[in-house]
Automatic annotation (TrEMBL):
Annotated TM spans: 40-62, 74-94, 100-117, 138-171, 191-219, 231-249
Places the protein is found: Cell membrane
Predominant location: membrane
Protein name: Probable membrane transporter protein
Annotated keywords: Cell membrane, Membrane, Transmembrane, Transmembrane helix, Transport
Membrane topology reported for the UniProt record: Multi-pass membrane protein
Length: 256
């Protein structure tokens, strides 16, 4: 076992832990892949990270399903939209420069962090007076957009999904995190189908990383179910802050 694989497996464990609670595991995995395996094309590294991501996220989704009630019909529509968006995003990665998207993401994340911290009831259940059709239309919209982002860039997808479920549908943090896992499984699967079909997955790294990601997901899911909304909200803020630093570095690094 090479030192590169050991390092990637360690990172994948912590990525699975973070991802199972509030998403954002890609903030660890993606930069680690780019730094540790710089000799490979970016698309290949992105494709490889999807295997461990789907392993941990699938386990988290299964674990949440045993304890948290899910709105299955609504979720199916969102999953379909996210799956479609992710395939399109994976295709667009070769023709769109993600550098132009990152400043917008940085602004959005900063606003999210401030809003979440200042609103003490954010992430508690809030009844939204939406009709069933309106819920579906909102879900289709944010599902497609976030799915497209996941296929195109990836890091922070789970965090954005949780934010969308809370803001648009009134879910609490626990139900948002659980629902986000199912959608994230769909976006990862869509990206895997595309990247595998174009030969952009390094299975010798992806499979061991998947085992460690799943292990981290097991620990993270147990903690989230045990501690509940308050714990998830605090963890959410920590991950959002880390995401802001990450994208801030990407945006402003060329000026230094």
């Amino acid at each position: 076992m090479t030192i590169e694989l050991v390092l990637l497996c360690i990172v994948s464990f912590f990525a699975g832990f973070i991802d199972s609670i509030v998403g954002g595991g890609g903030l660890l995995q993606t930069p680690a892949m780019l730094i540790i395996l710089p000799q490979y094309p970016v698309a290949t590294l992105f494709g490889t990270t999807k295997i461990p991501s789907i392993a941990g996220t699938s386990f988290a989704a299964f674990s949440y399903s045993r304890h948290v009630k899910i709105k299955v019909k609504l979720l199916l529509f969102i999953i379909l939209a996210a799956f479609t968006g992710s395939i399109l995003g994976a295709w667009c990665i070769s023709i769109i420069n993600s550098t132009y998207i990152k400043p917008f993401i940085l602004i959005l994340l900063t606003a999210t962090g401030i809003y979440t911290y200042s609103k003490k009831n954010f992430g508690l259940h809030q009844e939204k007076n939406h009709t069933g059709l309106r819920q579906i239309l909102l879900g289709l919209t944010f599902g497609f957009i976030i799915g497209f982002y996941d296929g195109l860039i990836g890091p922070g997808t789970g965090t954005f999904l949780i934010l969308a479920f809370i803001s648009f549908l009134g879910f609490d943090f626990l139900h948002s995190s659980a629902s986000a896992k199912y959608v994230n499984v769909a976006t990862n699967l869509a990206a895997i189908i595309y990247f595998a079909g174009t030969g952009h997955i390094l299975y010798q790294y992806a499979i061991p990383m998947a085992i460690f990601n799943l292990s981290g997901s097991f620990l993270g899911t147990r903690l989230a179910l045990l501690k509940g909304n308050r714990f998830i909200k605090i963890f959410f803020l920590v991950v959002v802050f880390g995401t802001i630093l990450r994208f801030g570095w990407d945006v402003f690094r060329p000026y230094f």
